[in-house]
Amino acid sequence: MIAFLRNEPGAEAVEEILTNPSHQCIAHVVNLSELYTWFAKHGGIPVAESAVADLIAAGIEQRYDIDDPYWKSVGRLRSEKHLRPIRLPARKTPFHLPIAS
């Protein structure tokens, strides 16, 4: 998704999928949080907000298992300071949780 938003190599393939009406494109809010964090770190919160809005406008639907304020707050925290990811053995994809110091 970052490559698509930054028009990097591979963006054309993502655009083809997004513009094909026979495809349903879904992003879990955990993945959106990762994207939000990346753009917040590299461009600030307004850029991160715009990136998510651009994906939604492009046709990506959000899968909600947690709410927006929560995952955005995790993204903001992660963009402000490096937080150690927790890797749970049962998950193939790591979920990053803030750890209290």
- Poorly predicted runs are 91-101
> What is the quaternary state of this protein?
single chain
- C-alpha Rg (nearest Å): 14 Å
What is the overall pLDDT average? 79
How would you classify the helix and strand content by structural class?
A: mainly alpha
Following the backbone from N to C, one meets helices and strands in this order, namely HHEHHEH
Structural topology:
Elements: H1 2-5, H2 11-19, E1 26-28, H3 29-43, H4 45-57, E2 61-63, H5 68-80
Parallel strand pairs: 1-2
Helix pairs in contact: 3-4, 3-5
Key words describing this protein structure:
disordered C terminus, mainly alpha, globular, 6% strand
Describe the structure.
The protein has five helices and two strands. It has helices at 2-5, 11-19, 29-43, 45-57, 68-80, and strands at residues 26-28, 61-63. α3 (29-43) packs across α4 and α3 (29-43) packs parallel to α5.
At a glance:
The chain is mainly alpha-helical. It is 53% helix and 6% strand.
